[in-house]
Write a structure and sequence with these properties.
CATH architecture of the largest domain: 3-Layer(aba) Sandwich
Strand content: 5-15%
Largest sheet: 5 strands, mixed
Number of domains: 3
Distance between the termini: 82 Å
Structural class: alpha+beta
Low-confidence stretches: 1-29, 730-759
CATH class of the largest domain: Alpha Beta
CATH topology of the largest domain: Beta-lactamase
Radius of gyration: 42 Å
Shape: elongated
Mean pLDDT: 84
Strand order of the largest sheet: 2-1-3-11-12
């Protein structure tokens, strides 16, 4: 085959051609053909390269155009504003706090030391003043330095690029983000001068631990103004920028020191300082601030701000809108009253809470949930479900008045017991409520019983009135707590309620029978002034006005001569009621003056006793008095309650002992009774006639509970004043011969759709479980993470 090919080529050559010439021609033809093939390949390759370059260029243009289309315009960059803080105001338009994601205070470049400026330039972008946004030489240099060192020492992004993603981009590491960063950097360089870019950069960058900008950083690490920073401090701060969490001197001092040395070295290389200055700055031992446990803190009214933040703002608007959207939140809080409440609660040895409301509107004027928010985020004003003890008795008495009973009626303060059957251990469970003093007063008026807080009377009255009726009244007054018992222990305040609920309920007595809805926010506006939400008073009828005013008048006597005397405020009418729970675990005082209702709660989070005499009158009432005494100097309030003309009440002065109209020597007090129900004869014990008293169709009645009827064998309808003698209790006063007793006809009240009948004997009530301080703090941090407030 080879021979045939060779012969073929030979046949093509003329025979008369010399051999040497023939050979030469053959080589020339072969070389020409090889050159032609190479040229074709080269042209093809060149064409492919040009084609790929064209495709890549078109693709690049399209990618850049797509990226640029989603970027802010030059006009938007020119008028760019950093994230807007939400501002929270009190009712007098005083700023309570600002809510923000980036803790930043702007500092002009003229107030930032040249050492800080040069340190950041040396560490982050030594060609800052020569490039136009992008530094290609710097990228190559950083790659070479990092390659030689085996680790990342220099970044490839210029200061302008870092500013670009700080202002307008996320930190995602994608090609598209880098393209956007480059475009924005070039635009920024066209819009702003180098000095403006450097000022924005130093105020925008993150220095770790929540410090944004040079002002926050200098305060956080050195507790000084930026203008006071020296070379050593400036170089350390400049070194942090590359990795705020990695180079923080508060947690990694060795890394921070190493990075500082690098910055000082770069400054020396750039001729900004001498090697001797660098060495001297390196040797200085810096004194850092102590790092506090990360938390969202509020300088003013922390419990109140926390309440509106987690109960309304964050659920309604989300963290991004709250911390970046520039909302203007106008609250009901009175900052001066809040300060007074915070000062007053320091008078407690235990933990506690104070809530102050405007009873006519429901506005929360002050709310303190504890003595130290930084110590514990547990808001006792809104989250602590505690037993109110005797401060719950006014609702039991109100239910009785709704059924036609009166403060002047009589009842027994005497031992009483209830058989609960066999307990878990097989023993007989007998409930025998007693009084705080340990003794009994015999026959007393309801007025006396509430003024001196007799427990056995409250239990008897609850038995007479009915537990469903008491629960109905509690709900009418605004109690929403699920922890209200369905037995006679309700009479002694075994329900578990919050101080805010108590303040809301006592407002019904203050405003004359209307239930209010407490609210903390009056209005929410955008930064531009557009109203997003607006709130105002929400009142609804709870009980007849005559009933509310009658109960209030009785509670005024509690403060004048009963358990609440330590709550007196000179010159003002005060009503209220003390509350103390078993073993002195909780102490309360709830009450008000015209235009203001205040509740003070005291107790330990671990339910340890307050110790004797840890009663509401001794522990809580003085704190209440201290706060209200300051409040009346700040607020413009009436000194006495205004009585509407059509309230349907009679104002009478009665004998506290007998309930009849006061005679000259009676221990007397003025109270309100619903019109037509007041006695009209004078007290027979202190000078009046028993015959006249007995003929009084509105004379006080003797009330017997079903248990009394069972034990004494006397039907309630046959009971007569001072006719019951109980062993061990003082004898009744002497009486004249009385005619046959005829019980008077009294108006009755039937609540709409009362709850189903419930057991009379008290059951063992389990207190709602409250979280430990550690659980509360963990939950608080969970909420911060849930709303993206902290990492």
């Amino acid at each position: 085959m080879k021979n045939n090919i060779f012969n073929f080529y030979r046949k093509k050559q003329p025979e008369n051609t010399p051999k040497a010439e023939r050979t030469t021609r053959t080589k020339k033809v072969h070389i020409t053909r090889k050159t032609s093939t190479f040229a074709k390949l080269a042209l093809t390759f060149l064409f492919v390269i040009v084609l790929l370059f064209a495709v890549a260029s078109i693709a690049g243009v399209l990618i850049i155009r797509d990226a640029a289309s989603t970027l802010p315009s030059v006009e938007e960059m020119t008028h760019y504003e950093p994230d807007l803080s939400t501002i929270v105001y009190d009712r007098n338009e005083k700023v309570i706090t600002r809510l923000f994601h980036e803790n930043r205070t702007w500092v002009p470049l003229s107030q930032i030391p040249i050492e800080v400026q040069e340190a950041c330039i040396a560490a982050e972008d030594s060609s800052f003043y020569s490039h136009r946004g992008l530094d290609f030489i710097g990228i190559v240099r950083a790659f070479w330095v990092n390659l030689r060192s085996g680790r990342t020492l220099q970044g490839a992004s210029t200061i302008t690029q870092q500013l670009a993603w700080n202002l307008f981009l996320t930190k995602e590491k994608t090609l598209q983000r880098k393209i956007k960063e480059a475009i924005i950097s070039i635009r920024l360089e066209r819009i702003y001068s180098k000095e403006q870019i450097l000022e924005m950069y130093l105020n925008m960058i993150y220095f770790g631990h929540g410090a944004w900008g040079i002002h926050s950083a200098s305060q956080l690490y050195f507790n000084k103004e930026p203008s006071e920073l020296d070379l050593s401090e400036a170089s350390l701060l400049a070194g942090i920028v590359k990795g705020p969490e990695y180079y923080t001197p508060l947690r990694h001092p060795e890394r921070a020191s190493e990075r500082q040395a690098y910055v000082l070295g770069r400054m020396a290389q750039e001729g900004m300082i001498t090697p001797e200055q660098a060495q001297a700055a390196r040797k200085i031992d810096l004194d850092f601030q102590t790092l506090k446990k990360p938390a969202i803190m509020f300088d003013e009214a922390p419990y109140f701000i926390s309440h509106i933040l987690f109960e309304h703002l964050l659920p309604s608007y989300g963290s991004d809108m709250v911390y970046r959207g520039g909302l203007r939140v106008h609250t009901t809080l009175d900052l001066d009253l809040q300060h007074a409440a915070e000062e007053a609660i320091k008078g407690l040895k235990s933990e506690g809470a104070i809530v102050a409301l405007d009873p006519g509107t429901g506005e929360i004027l002050a709310l303190v949930g504890g003595k130290d928010f930084e110590q514990t985020k547990f808001n006792r004003a809104t989250q602590a479900f505690r037993q109110p003890g005797s401060s719950f008795k006014p609702f039991v008495y109100t239910a009785a008045l709704m059924k036609g009973l009166r403060p002047v009626d009589h009842i027994l303060d005497a031992p009483v017991s209830y058989d609960n059957g066999i307990d878990e251990r097989g023993d007989r469970d007998i409930w025998e409520p007693g009084n705080y003093t340990g003794d009994f007063k015999g026959e007393v008026t309801l007025l006396q019983a509430l003024v001196h807080s007799y427990n056995t009377v409250a239990v008897r009255l609850a038995h007479i009135t009915g537990i469903p009726e008491i629960i109905d009244v509690a709900r009418r007054f605004g109690f929403t707590s699920p922890h209200i018992p369905n037995d006679l222990s309700i009479a002694l305040g075994s329900a578990n309620v919050t101080p805010l609920e108590m303040a809301s309920a006592y407002s019904v007595f203050a405003n004359g029978g209307s239930r209010i809805t407490p609210y903390a926010i009056r209005k929410i506006n955008t930064a531009a002034g557009e109203t997003l939400e607006q709130y105002g008073p929400n009142l609804s009828p709870a009980v007849p006005e005559a009933i509310a005013l009658s109960m209030r008048s009785v509670m005024m006597e509690v403060v004048r001569s009963g358990t609440g005397t330590r709550a007196r405020v000179p010159g003002y009418e005060v009503f209220g009621k003390t509350g103390t729970t078993n073993d002195y675990t909780d102490a309360w005082f709830a009450g008000g003056i015209p235009g203001l209702v205040v509740v003070v709660y005291a107790g330990n989070d671990d339910n340890k006793t307050l110790g004797r005499p840890g009663t509401g009158g001794v522990v809580a009432a003085p704190v209440w008095q201290a706060f209200v005494s300051k409040a009346v100097k700040h607020l413009t309030l009436r000194e006495s309650f205004e009585i509407p003309e059509r309230a349907g009440i009679d104002t009478i002065t009665v004998c506290r002992d007998s309930g009849f109209l006061s005679a000259g020597s009676c221990p007397s007090t003025a109270i309100f009774l619903p019109s037509g129900l007041a006695p009209y004869s004078t007290c027979p014990i202190h000078g009046g006639s028993w015959i006249m008293a007995e003929s009084d169709r509105n004379e006080p009645r003797m009330l017997l509970s079903p248990r009394d009827e069972e034990v004494l064998g006397i039907p309630a309808r046959m009971a007569r004043l001072y006719s019951i003698s109980i062993s061990g209790i003082a004898a009744a006063p002497p009486m004249e011969e009385l005619p046959t007793y005829q019980p008077p006809q009294m108006p009755t009240y039937t609540p709409p759709s009362p709850p189903a009948t419930t057991p009379v004997t008290p059951s063992r009530q389990s207190k709602p479980r409250e979280r430990t301080p550690e659980e509360i703090e963990d939950r608080y941090q969970e909420l911060l993470k849930q709303y993206g407030i902290s990492d």
